[in-house]
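Protein Record: Sequence and Backbone Structure Tokens
======================================================

Structure line: whole-number tokens from a learned vocabulary of local backbone shapes, matched to residues.

Purpose: to set a sequence beside its fold so the mapping can be learned.

___
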Amino acid sequence: MVMAVRTLTIGALAERTGCNVPTIRYCEEIGLLPSPRRGAGGQRVYAAGDFARLTFVRRCRDFDFSIEQIRELLALVEDPERDCVAAKDLAETHLSAVRAKLRDLRALEKSLSQFAAACTAQCAGGPARDCVILDEFSRPAKCC
């Protein structure tokens, strides 16, 4: 559902986009959101375009795109002559990175599960100095 937006204060923009005020200020500072015009008393005033842009940035962050990737995606949005293949390529590159993280997380899950099982079998309830988990963390990581 698209909301009708005329102008918003920073607090209202934060509420409607699900961002917090410091995040909005940060997005302005790093150029993901243009500096807003100022109303009476110097208060920031945001328009519908700001709402749409911040919503876009927020959704990109929901998908864990980096700031630089978001800049690239925003550049695509702002240039109607660009082909959407660039967006697809960026999404596929990000997907590859996400899949690599998933592999790493699965390996981490397996290791932690093995640590917990070993503790249950060998030392649970005993003194911490004899814990197989703590012992494992004291050793250098296995390489290659």
In short: Helices lie at 10-17, 21-29, 48-62, 67-78, 85-122, 132-138. The chain has two domains: 7-82, 93-138.
